[in-house]
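Input chain follows. Return structure tokens only.
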Amino acid sequence: MARFLFIIVPIVARVWPAVAIGDALATMGHEVAWCGPEGDLRAVVGPDMTIYATGKRSYRAFHEVGLGAVRELWDGYLMPLNRFIQAPVERAVAEFQPDVVFADQYALVGAAAAYKQGVRWATLCAGALELTPPAGFEVVRELVSSRVARVRQRAGLSDEESLDLLFSPDLVIATTSRALTGAAPIPPQCVLIGAALGPRRTDTGFDWDWWDSGRRHVLVTVGTLSSHLAQDFLKRVMAAMEPMGSKVQVVINAAADAVPDPPPHVLVAPRVPMLELMPRLDAVVCQAGQSTVNEALFHGVPLVVAPIRLGELVVAQQVTRAGAGIEVSFSEVTPAQLADALAAVLDEPDYRSRTRRISEEFVKAGGADAAAQHLVALATRP
């Protein structure tokens, strides 16, 4: 039996893949402990898991795009987060004495603490921005590298300039597949596992009495970090859906007041059981977050993607290149353009067939079980 310490960034889309992998390790009989805010973790990992609490540093609503969005992410959230959790993370590594630290790519102090204490560490890469950077990423890379260097310095690793805290030299587990990354170069220590999906203990109920299996179904979601920007986009989505009438039922994952007075064939819910819904859907409209895209592709559901910033722009390009969906502009797409995109992914069979091929590749990649096996292999490596 090996011991694994998971160090997370408390963002929903990044926590769920880690939880699925942690569950797979626990099922194999290994000991798993967690490091992060207990208020976020306890409900999702279960009552019996060991948690080394860090306290909570909340994610602030963002407003920038382009290079400004990267700077805002790092300076407004990730750098303060890493300063805030550094001491508790170092204590957790020292007390738990894991065989492997498994750190979210943005939990840089987890990698630093493992390195300082002579513990092997692996990286969970739950996004596409750093793994498969877009053209012209050099300026962004310089910005990110400077922030990583600051974390190294704060951790007492100023002399370790070759140490890349974003990517473990031994094992990087990425929640994507070659169907999406294409021919982009991937670090040799990186394994692509597809979608890391598992039971979700906090999933809410759903009004299945409303669901009409004789109609088609579309899910609309903009993710947890973009809800403050969604109202106008959702208004255009509703206008785009009007010509379809009640032939299509629409589930909108948003606050109840985001869509005032929805018609009977539209259900607005702030929380939905995503993995229960996905196999029943005919299309997904989303902001191209890696988590939602993976859930849709795993279940063979084509997409209309409206990226907002950061890695979403990369993932949207990957989805369209793979033929699994259509990209539209989040800020500028018209209802007519949205209606055309939805009609295409709903009615043109090529989108569904290509998405199903990607689903098959995801299944072969192994998901959470494959990630667990790679982590065990690292823990038992001489």
